Structures are given as structure tokens and as C-alpha cells.
Amino acid sequence: MKIAENTFGSRYHVDEKGFYGRFGGAYVPEMLYPNVEELQTNYLQILRDPGFQQEFEQLLRDYVGRPSPLYLAKRLSEKYKANIYLKREDLNHTGAHKVNNTIGQILLAKRLGKTRVIAETGAGQHGVATATVCALMGIECVVYMGSIDIQRQAPNVARMRMLGATVVPATSGSKTLKDATNEAIRDWINNPVNTHYILGTAAGPHPYPDMVSRFQSVISEEIRKQLLEKTGKPNPDYVMACIGGGSNAAGAYYHFLDEPDVKLIAVEAGGKGVNSGFSAATTQLGKLGIIHASKTLLMQTEDGQITEPHSISAGLDYPGIGPLHAHLYETGRATFLNATDDEALQAAYELTRLEGIIPALESSHALAKLGEVGFKPDDVVVVCLSGRGDKDMETYIRNLPANTGDNA
Amino acid sequence: MSNRIDQLFAAKKNGILNIYCTAGFPELNDTLPVMRSLQAAGADLIELGMPFSDPLADGPVIQDSSTRAIRNGMSLRVLFEQLKDFRKEISVPVVLMGYLNPVLLYGIENFCKKCAEVGVDGVILPDLPMDEYESDYKAIFEQYGLHLIFLVTPETNDARLRKIDGLSRGFVYAVSSSSTTGKDKDMSHQQQYFERLKGMQLKNPVLIGFGIKDKATFDAACAYSNGAIIGTAFIRAIENTTNLDTAIRQFIAGVK
Ligand SMILES: Cc1ncc(COP(=O)(O)O)c(C=O)c1O
């Protein structure tokens, strides 16, 4: 595997100024300028270094367990009348795609001479993946997590602490992912020299969206190889992924962005319904603005205050969307759907009973829309199964339909 | 020289006291009473915070004041309404400080026009990148006679400092240490940085902010600059008071 090469010039990749169309950039206060500039200046060079690539590849193979399988889900395919493949990011070490990025960023942090790492987390998957690589490298780790998420993703909090990370509750605003990210950025302002911020999604100031997408692009690179082996063609008809900030989607789309015959489907968190006032479907509800130092679509009031989103899934409970995805939305390159809390739950129960796989609530949002795309029987569909459901067991058990678990 | 900030620095070179207060705080209609008391008590410059839901560069005290102001109903629209006639009674220069998102949504040109209309003299937008300001907005700010004030920090290198000084109008805002607002970082470590700033002989006056909280820290900052900015300590002094005017006069008397 290789970290995606320079793609300046492509319509769907970042430009030299850190923008995707009119989205992106680095709207950081001066206090963060040196940190961000250090990354901007160095990231491509570090990522292209053969020694770095070798270390990255080796850890992904021997530590994370890549390549992750591409699994033809037969019973799911029968039900939705298409050839549905699941890209099994849930089988990665730590249970989600997040670790692809944290491996890359911890190696980068080491090369930049950083001795302390901070991260934000929503579902706790990114926090666990960060705490894991910090344990691996013997680096101090502080993870910011919304106090509501600390409650709803308790197993991941315990894992982070066991891994030696300090978990700091974010108690401002909606007490979820947005606020955890604010606190991480504030920590970085206060510790600008020794600390690297491992941002967990394809959002934030340039170069994060591009850097995170490149680390995650191992997903689409493997999909191409695996599909070629299994079907004789590297390109599927559809790639589907859920979108929080957009890192698993960016990774699943990456090598297909400039392949117009591959249709990209993004599924946002509809919450209790797009127009219910409790939703996180940013493209449907958002307007152009700046969130976490990136110019992108975000949910805001008519006065420009960022609004509090809602999703049953902590990893999608974010009022913005990474700038790449805002651009894919605006250009029509990707089709954006959304799944409600209930639809996601039903999709999770369905996958569990049809395939024996308990998915993360985030990934379940992508699965929930299999019936709405309008597949033809020959279509090859890849769904990015971004994570496993261990962390969501409490929610799953609480919402279990009455007849499940008997003899259905 | 029509901008009040320039007039102030032309008339007074040292010991300039700039007080930050979030607009619409503690109560929605306290914006003007706070300004009146500040002027009467002897503040040289007033920095009015435009509250934002996600103030990345601010510590808990200013965050909480913003949350409270938003809850009180403060917004750019309400603020400009409150400021409609303020120049009939307030003569000290006034700078608006806030984050880019609400201003972008309001519209940069619209915003500048409103500032000029009501008599605001300058603006601080910490998350507006210098390059974007230069290419997209500078002409608009200048057309309306509005000064944009940029920040520098201990980590800002000399070349960038020169560039910032070249673009900044009114003054340069020197952040005392690498921190969010309201952190108690020890300023004695900042001597080298302050001396570097002083030695560079910038074209703009310099005000030092972040961590200035009392007479000792104010005087220490003034030794290296034209003056200093107090925010968090002032917010603390008025957040729970029953007599705003007295609290403000006492606070300013304690610093000057
Ligand atoms: C399993 C899983 N999938 C998806 C996401 C959403 O993030 P992103 O949109 O960056 O892939 C998360 C975030 O926590 C997650 O844990």
C-alpha cells in the first residue's frame, strides 16, 4: 500500500492554498498559526518519505491487521438485490477506521519532535485509536470528550484510561464532539511547541482534511485491489459511507474521486428527522461559514451562532462537515442522503441478524439507506463498515425490538 | 487623521488602558451603561466583544460571558441597534472584537458599513487570515475608514511580525503568552519577547493583552508597550455585581 500521491490539479482534491473549491482553508487565530504552518510546510514531504511510508505500511499490516477484508454480504445482497460488499474497517485493531489516521499522525508527530499528543473524540473510537498509538510510542496523551459522550460511550472511556490517556470532559455548549474539538484546539493554543493535535476526522484547518484523507485512502486503495480480484474490475458502481466529519467517507472515496462512473453516496445523521430540530444533517441544514478553522457548511442560527446538533450516534453528532465533502455536495459529485436514529438502529439489527456482524451506530447510517438508492441487480456496491458495535451495546440493548432475540 | 484610534495614540503614547467587555453582558442592555462607566472612569479605549458560540481563543470566563450574552439575546443586529446613537455620549475609540463566522454571515461589506455608520473605529477578528484580508477585504475596510487590528504572539517570527505590522491599522495586539484568554501564565518569562517587540520599532503602536489583570501586570506590560488590554479580570469584576457603575469605577481605579 502507498500513501496517495500528490493530486494537485484534480477537481476533487485540495489545491495549493488548502481549498476544495470554495471550502477549506485555515482560519486559525495567530496563536495557532505557527503550529498549522509547521504542518502545512512539512506534511507532504514527511508523507512521501520512503522511511515513513515503510513504517506506516508495516504498522498497518502487522499492528492494525490490514488489509481489512472486503466481504460479499450474501444475505444482505439478496435482500437489497445487488452485490453488496462490506469493507470491514470494523475488524481493524481498536475496532474502527480511525486507527489508520492515528498511526499516520503519531509517526508524523514523532518526526516533528513532539512529546505530547492531544485529541478530540465523539464516539470514543478516535480517542481509543489515539490512546493506543500513544501507548505504542510511549507518548503522553490527553483526550477531550464531551461529557454527554462520556456517558453514552462508557466502554471507550474505560479503554482510553486503561491505555494511559487522560480523558478530559468538555462541559461547554452541547457537551459533544464540537465542544470536545473546541477544548482540544484551546489546549493546542496553550501548548503550541511540544504538542501535536491528532485531529480525528477530515475537518479542521488545512492540512488536516487532506492529511487525514490521505492516511485513510488506504481504504479505497484496498477496495480497488480486492474488487479487481473478486470481480475482475477495480471500480464498483457505488461506494457508500456515513459522514460525521468525513474521514471514513474520504478514505472510501479517495481513489474513486476522479472516476466518474463510480457513484458516491454519503449518509448523514438525520437524528429525529431533518426538520425536527434534532438533526445533524449538515448539508440539508447548513450554510457556508467557519467551524473549527475551516470554511465549510455548518449548522448555524441566522445570527451566525453554531447550533447544537443531534444524533443517536456520538460520532456523527457534529454540526459541520469536512470541506472535501461540502465540495462533493456542491458539485454534485456525491449524493447526500440521511438516516434517522431509528433507521440506523433498524439497520444495525438487520445486519446483525442477516450477517452476524454488529456494526457501529455510525456505520449503520450508511447501511440504513441500502433500500433507497435504487440498485440494479448487477450493481457492485461497497459499503464502508467503518466500525464495530461494541461501544454501542448499551444503546442497542435499550432499543431492542420486542421480538428480537427470541426465534425470529 | 479622522479615526479616533489614531487620534488617541497621537495624543497619548504611554499607559493606554483598553478594557474588553462582551456586548450584552451582564444583561442585554448593559452594553451602553458599561461603556459610559468605562469612559467616565478613565478607560482610554473600549473593546466590545461580539459574542460567539464557539470562541476558540478564549478561556472559560470570556466563554461564559459570551454564552450569557447570546442567551440574553445579543447578536450583531441587536448590537448595531444598541450602538445607533452611542457617539452622542461616548467619545473614546471603540473596537469590536469577535470571530469571523457571524461577521461573514452578516456580510463583510454590510458589517463595515454599519460600523462606520454608528462610529466604531476598529475591528479585531483573530481567525481572519492575513492573506484573505489582504486579497478580499482590505479595500472594503479602508473604504469605510475602519481599522483592522491583527494579533502577534511570542511564536510569531520577525518576518511575519513585520508583515502583520504592515497590514495592521491603529495598533498591533501583542498576545502576552501562547495561551487562551484568562490564563495565569507568568509574564516574567515574556521579557525577551516584549524586548524583541520593542526593539523592532513597529510602525504601529503596541498594546499587550492576555493575562493583564491588575496594576502590577498593567504596569509591567506598559513598560514595554504603549499600553495594555484587560478582559477576563474585568468580566470577573462585573459578572456578579449589583452596582455596575461602582464596580467599574473601582476596577479602573485599582489599575490606573
Ligand atoms: C465507527 C465510526 N464511523 C464513523 C465515524 C464518523 O467519523 P468520520 O465521518 O470522520 O468517518 C466515527 C466517529 O467517531 C466512528 O467511530
TrEMBL record, chain A:
Substrates-to-products reaction catalysed: (1S,2R)-1-C-(indol-3-yl)glycerol 3-phosphate + L-serine = D-glyceraldehyde 3-phosphate + L-tryptophan + H2O
Pfam families, sorted: PALP (PF00291)
EC identifiers of the protein: 4.2.1.20
CDD domains listed in its UniProt record: Trp-synth_B
GO cellular component: cytoplasm
Co-factor requirement: pyridoxal 5'-phosphate
PANTHER family in alphabetical order: TRYPTOPHAN SYNTHASE, TRYPTOPHAN SYNTHASE-RELATED
Its job: The beta subunit is responsible for the synthesis of L-tryptophan from indole and L-serine.
Subunit structure: Tetramer of two alpha and two beta chains.
Name listed for the protein in its UniProt record: Tryptophan synthase beta chain
Biological source species: Chitinophaga tropicalis
From TrEMBL, chain B:
EC id: 4.2.1.20
Gene3D superfamilies registered for this protein in UniProt: Aldolase class I (3.20.20.70)
Recorded metabolic or biological pathway in which this protein acts: Amino-acid biosynthesis; L-tryptophan biosynthesis; L-tryptophan from chorismate: step 5/5
Catalytic activity: (1S,2R)-1-C-(indol-3-yl)glycerol 3-phosphate + L-serine = D-glyceraldehyde 3-phosphate + L-tryptophan + H2O
A GO MF label: tryptophan synthase activity
Coiled-coil regions, chain positions: none
Quaternary structure (record): Tetramer of two alpha and two beta chains.
PANTHER family assigned: TRYPTOPHAN SYNTHASE ALPHA CHAIN, CHLOROPLASTIC, TRYPTOPHAN SYNTHASE, ALPHA CHAIN
Protein's name according to its UniProt entry: Tryptophan synthase alpha chain
Organism: Chitinophaga tropicalis
Record lineage: Bacteria, Pseudomonadati, Bacteroidota, Chitinophagia, Chitinophagales
Name of the coding gene: trpA
